[in-house]
Amino acid sequence: MQADDFGFGTQIRKSPYFDATVRWGAKGFSVYNHMYIPRDFGDPEQNFWNLVNHAILCDVAVERQVEITGPDAAKFTQILTCRDLSKMAVGQCKYILITNADGGILNDPILLRLAENHFWISLADSDILLWAQGVAINSGLDVTIGEPDVSPLQLQGPKSGEIMRALFGDDLMDLRYYWLREVELNGIPLIVSRTGWSSELGYEIYLRDGSKGDLLWETIMAAGMEFGLKPGHTSSIRRIEGGMLSYHADADISTNPFELGFDRLVNLNMEADFIGKAALCRIKEEGVSRKQIGLIIDGAPLTGPNTTFWEINLDGEAIGKVTSAVYSPRLEQNIALAMVSAEHAKIGAQVEVITKSGPIGATICERPFYDPKKQIAAA
Q1: Cα–Cα distance list, 302 to 283, 335, 366 (Å)
Q2: Which of 8, 31, 20, 7 is nearest to 210 (CA)?
Q3: Is residue 159 a part of any domain in this protein?
Q4: N- to C-terminal Cα distance for the chain?
Q5: Do residues 17 and 151 touch, judged by C-beta distance below 8 A?
Q6: Residues 6+ apart with CB under 8 A from 285
Q7: CA-based angle 39:99:58, to the nearest 5?
Q8: Do the domain assignments include residue 32?
Q9: Is the domain of 366 the same as that of 233?
Q10: Please, which residues bridge with residue 169 across strands?
Q11: Based on the domain organization, do 52 and 163 belong to the same domain?
Q12: CATH number for the domain harbouring residue 301
């Protein structure tokens, strides 16, 4: 299949790695941040095993960067998020939540601090570039906000460190979890961070020159061959095992941080008056009406992820919805993330899920389902 066989027109952008992913076996794409993202390199279970046993390389150029620079960049960036950034060092990354005036989550990106007044917000799937530019207009702050020529790849899996050593030597082996470094590879300008959407050991490699996308992809694949590196796509199985959110599925503009158990990402006592502070103070005081939980769903292995929100019932009454469900071949269970009314969010409770095949029993459980302390990724 040729790269030109994919497409709906020029309104959906292709990444600098698009042609390479098609050459390496990408069979299907979806749209994320107005760009194509590879979603199919064959059997998703094999993709999962490739990830957890060896390593995969994923085109995640859809994680667009919102770049914030200028004398007031640090102050402005703090306005956007409920997480306290006062101790964030240059070279550090943080998982943050961007909230609106009602405390609803607009995005759950990774924030990178490249310099004292230079930040990238590495986005999940929503238009935060427009939000940030709108907030800036009447902020009275001296900032410049735009989208740079930056396109990340994810190199994830237990062999990713060895592949990075083969590419860069020993220089990056001391890079800590959620830290970044500016590097070059054969003249290709990059930022490398110890982050990723897999809950495995991994790196994100941010290309700073879109014309070098094909060269970067092929260089990494060549270096990784001896370590079992495969082209792949972000694994729904592994991210649900790890309890990682997918924006628009597990959270959206109507979801607040406390419903997700993200209290640690909300600092209501800091001096900064971030957007949504008053609303989140009120929600914290009143308590939430629903909570995210984990589910183990009975029955035969699911043949794929849910494509609709499945209703959850208790004694014939709807109490919530399944947001992300999948079969884990490692756990040999159907696992799911779900949102239910707070009064029914009790570990061990038996409920009924209305799947596309009909009602199935399920048990409310803790999440993440695997490696709950993230020891694999942080090692």
Answers
A1: 36, 9, 20
A2: 20
A3: yes
A4: 39
A5: yes
A6: none
A7: 20
A8: yes
A9: no
A10: none
A11: yes
A12: 2.40.30.110
Residue-level pLDDT at 10: 87
Q: Does 113 reside within a domain?
A: yes
- Domain holding 15, by residue range, is 3-64+149-240
27 SS3 class: coil
* Residue 206 tokens, joined: 């941010």
Residue 1 has pLDDT above 60, yes or no: no
User: Does 80 share its domain with 99?
Assistant: yes
Residues, the chain: 379
Whether the predicted pLDDT of 42 surpasses 60: yes
- Are the beta carbons of 79 and 139 closer than 8 angstroms? yes
Which domain CATH number covers 75?
3.30.70.1400
297 strand-pairing partners: 334, 362
Residue type, 300: A
Q: What is the pLDDT of residues 197-241, one digit of tens each?
A: 999 999 999 999 999 999 999 999 999 999 999 999 999 999 999
Q: How many domains does the chain have?
A: 3
Number of other CB atoms surrounding residue 3 within 10 Å? 14
Q: Are residues 295 and 179 in the same domain?
A: no
For residue 158, which of 196, 112, 207 has the smallest C-alpha distance?
Answer: 196
Q: Does 127 lie in the same domain as 212?
A: no
CA distance 351 to 315: 8
The pTM for the full model equals: 0.96
Highest mean pLDDT among 6-10, 90-94, 356-360: 90-94
Last residue of a domain, one of 113, 146, 179: 146
Report phi then psi at 240, rounded to 5.
-70, -40
Question: Please, which residues have CB within 8 angstroms of residue 191's CB and are 6 or more apart in sequence?
Answer: 112, 114, 150, 180, 181, 182, 183, 205, 206, 208
